[in-house]
Prior knowledge:
Elements (H helix, E strand, L loop, with lengths): L2 H8 L9 E4 L2 E5 L3 E5 L17 H13 L7 H22 L6 H13 L9 H19 L16 E3 L6 E3 H28 L1
Antiparallel strand pairs: 1-2, 2-3, 4-5
Helix pairs in contact: 2-4, 3-4, 3-5
Amino acid sequence: MSNEEYLKYLQNYNDNAKLFQIQNNILILNYNGTFKMPLTHINLSELNPNIFNLDPRETFQIIYVLELLYKPNLTESETNFITNYTQKYLSLNDSVLDNDSDDKDRVWCLSIPIYKAYDPMFINSQCATTINNVINNHNEILESGKGKQKRLVLENKNIPTILDEEDNLPINLEKAGFISLLFIVAAVIATVSYITYYIIR
Length: 201
């Protein structure tokens, strides 16, 4: 099935796909402007159709990055685009991992060219190298502690902590000791009362 035939098929049930058209194997998006890209290597029928559920501009960007993976030499603007795309993906992915976002499906779709970059056939691809460099830099920042991290909780290392199984919150044993003391006092009072009762009786 040609790209044009497949796009027409998608348009039967996907409204976003109707914003695209193909002329002479050039993908055209008419959405807040007109964007064009020759489909030299990408066969739309081989892509997950869920990408057309995204904002049409993101769908276009995914396909664009996939095409750039095959391009031997990139312009500066193309390299900058790939860098910005990868950084956007990493930021959204971090939000999903931190449970700050419900964009799991969106992130999964945006990850398609990212994971494709690790295909051995793209080992010498300038696009794949750019993606890999951005990811490595992102990981170095996270490992150094300069990236977005979950809030750190300062605690006295001399006081051991236990984990609350229900809330997954650390409980300070120093505070827990007070409750234990109350139980001990209550047990002593109960014991004394019991003995006193039998002596008086």
